[in-house]
Design brief:
- The chain has 41 residues and is mainly α.
- Helix content is 68%, strand content 0%.
């Protein structure tokens, strides 16, 4: 595994974490409208 491979893997993990966090945040904000996570994307 080269240094470039590690950077790409780290970037992928960061993007994944940001996406997951944004989905959780959006879900929490829509909860007051009784909209579940399966009803938006």
């Amino acid at each position: 595994m080269t240094n470039e491979d590690v950077k790409e893997e780290s970037l992928g993990k960061l993007i994944s974490c940001l996406y997951r966090y944004s989905q959780m945040n959006l879900g929490n904000k829509l909860e007051q409208y009784n909209i579940g996570s399966g009803q938006f994307s």
